[in-house]
Amino acid sequence: MAKEIIKEAEANMKKTIEVVKKEFASMRAGRATPALLDKIQVNYYGTPTPVNQLANITVPEARLLVVQPWDKTALPEIERAILKSDLGINPASDGTVIRLAIPQLTQERRTDLMKVIKKKAEEGRVAVRNVRRDTNEHLKAYQKEGKISEDELKRHQDEVQKLTDRIIKEIDNLLSTKEQEIMQV
Question: Where does the record place a coiled coil (predicted)?
Answer without folding.
Answer: 139-173
